[in-house]
Specification:
Length: 338
């Protein structure tokens, strides 16, 4: 069987094609799946999508009309998928329920350290043979407080690194993670975490209850010299409120690997285009802000695990089996999702 895979990055392609070798043929495309590209999938029973795919009801209807029965998304988050529409169409939807949490946690730390120690500014200067230290002073993190919003696998991995730095640990989640508690984490109300933490990191899913959880009020509650890192989902932060906060001269640094409207920009070359997103353009002007293009997950280890899970989802679908990755199975939503 031939599978069409959308949004395949150049470095990801050999992993995907090697994993399916001897099983199925893969047509790897660098374009993303949306209403404009959905017709490409006509005639393919199995479609694999990437994290920034648009899988709203209209796209799903187009795919179903073209014969698609399984969408195997190569990511954990599924806020971009209309699961009820997929169920009504009798489709199956699979995802990657987990992969290396260390990939994302380590990258979140890379962002935190880079903005704390002004690494990007320093590198730009030294490339121009400017070796002054003016404006490059950072802070020791030992003895300061890390606030972790979301203490699942990735949040726990971030916490372990913070513990290694000798930081005080505050956490907020629906349920306490006993392994984080063993490291010395104290679970506190979100308002207290925001007010006391020197470094705040987000590791939450994007659902109705977390959308723009970092809004103007949350930003106002933070210390003026706090560091904010988001390597989870762009929609967790009200970006316009963040820009206003930065314009007021608050926050020591911000590290973002995700952005609310990233589907329009990330993973493609926009260097020759006029950027019509005023919020993103303004965000890029702040010297204490570092924005990367949703690459926290992008390690050999994590991509290998993502591809392996995608293969398993395809094989289980063809064998009429289900697994923990399936969000919709032949039109049936899990009881918890109904």
């Amino acid at each position: 069987m031939e599978i069409v895979a959308f949004g395949v990055q150049a470095d990801e392609r050999p992993y995907l094609e090697k994993a399916f070798a001897g099983r199925h043929q893969v047509r790897s495309l660098d374009v993303f799946l949306n209403r404009d590209t959905a017709p490409i999938a006509r005639g393919y029973e199995i479609v694999s999508s990437s994290v920034n795919a648009d899988l709203g009801a209209d796209v799903l209807q187009a795919l179903a009309a073209g014969g698609t029965k399984l969408i195997a998304q190569r990511s954990t988050g599924f806020n971009n998928i209309d699961l009820e529409a997929a169920a009504d169409l009798g489709m199956s939807i699979g995802r990657v329920s987990c992969y290396s949490p260390y990939a994302v946690a380590e990258f979140a730390w890379a962002l935190a350290l880079a903005v704390n120690r002004r690494i990007v500014r320093a590198t730009t200067r030294t490339r121009n043979f400017d070796f002054r230290l003016d404006g490059l002073m950072g802070r020791d993190l030992r003895g300061r407080t890390a606030g972790v919003l979301g203490t699942g696998r990735i949040g726990e991995a971030f916490t372990r690194i913070a513990h290694g730095f000798g930081m005080n640990l505050l956490g907020w989640d629906l349920a306490e993670n006993p392994r984080c508690v063993e490291l010395g984490m104290r679970y506190v109300p979100r308002e207290r975490l925001l007010a006391e933490a020197d470094l705040i990191t987000l590791h939450l899913p994007l659902v109705d209850g977390t959308r723009r959880i970092v809004d103007a009020a949350a930003l106002a509650a933070m210390k003026d010299d706090a560091i904010l890192v988001n390597s989870s989902r762009g929609g967790l932060i009200d970006t316009e409120a963040l820009v206003d906060t930065l314009k007021a001269g608050r926050l020591t640094g911000v590290g973002l690997d995700v952005y609310e409207e990233e589907a329009r920009f990330f993973f493609v070359d926009k260097s020759l285009d006029v950027i019509d997103d005023d919020t993103l353009a303004r965000l890029m002007t702040f010297g204490n802000v570092l924005v990367t293009s949703h690459q926290a997950y992008f390690t050999e280890d994590a991509v290998g695990q993502i591809v392996a899970a995608t293969v398993a989802n395809v094989e289980d679908h063809l064998a009429h089996r289900t697994n923990e990755n399936m969000l919709v199975t032949r039109g049936q939503l899990p009881a918890a999702a109904r």
